[in-house]
Amino acid sequence: MKTFSKLAFVIAATSLSITAFASDSQYVPGLEGIKGSVAPPPGVYYRGYLANYSADKNEALPEGGKVNVTALVNRAVWVTPQKFLGGDVILDTIVPLVKTDIELNGIGKDDRTGLGNLYASGLLGWHGDRWDAIAGAGWYFGNSGDYSIDRIASPAKDYDSLSFTLGGNMKLNKEGDINLSALGTYEIPQEDGLDEELMVEWGLSKSFGMLDIGLVGYNTFETGAGNEKRNAAGMSVAYFSPDLLLGGDIGVYKEYSNENTFEGNLVRGSLTKAF
Known about the structure:
The chain is an all-beta fold. It has one helix spanning 6-10, and strands spanning 43-57, 65-84, 87-104, 108-115, 118-127, 131-141, 161-171, 178-189, 197-208, 211-222, 229-241, 246-255, 263-274. The longest helix has 5 residues, at 6-10.
């Protein structure tokens, strides 16, 4: 894990797109909820995420501390009519705006608001009678947001990251209204001394027409020399209006059994508009 200073060593990734963890990753688990691995049909979409993460527990900090991060993540998605390997070709980009307040008892505190690093990716989405799948790769552009080496609450990071995505969704019954989904992300920071990380988001849901209700969660594991782990479980509700071409999603997560990082709660809402 990269060490900028005593403060940054303890919380080197308060600057993610919206995170307060010590991870070197820039992806934020918990933003995608029910059916997070199901790509929409061809078209242009805007998806906005509003999320808040708060925590005051960190066993790695002898004196304790607390963190509060609020982020508005703007995402543009184009599911093209083109096919490759039988899947829909998808292009997307993300522009995050982040507000971070952090206090490390006995060390210091910082707060800052600004742009996180920009992200762009290419994906393929497949659909079967009882299954869906998605795969692709993306790139975080280091220093494309607001970053300062002497501010631990910087919204952006000063290095690029390569991200791989792989996910699937299964309809568990004949009616197709019970779904189990998993979305995996593997991130590789493009700088020596940083830890790669595997992040898995999952959801088990029941559909009532256009309304989905279910359990959601995420689990993350640093690889190599890294030893940070994060676990969370919660509830999510999603609804889509075909008449308005508008959808919404609300999720609440409680973290548990985290190691070498903060442990807290994540509240997330999202709005999707099809054009």
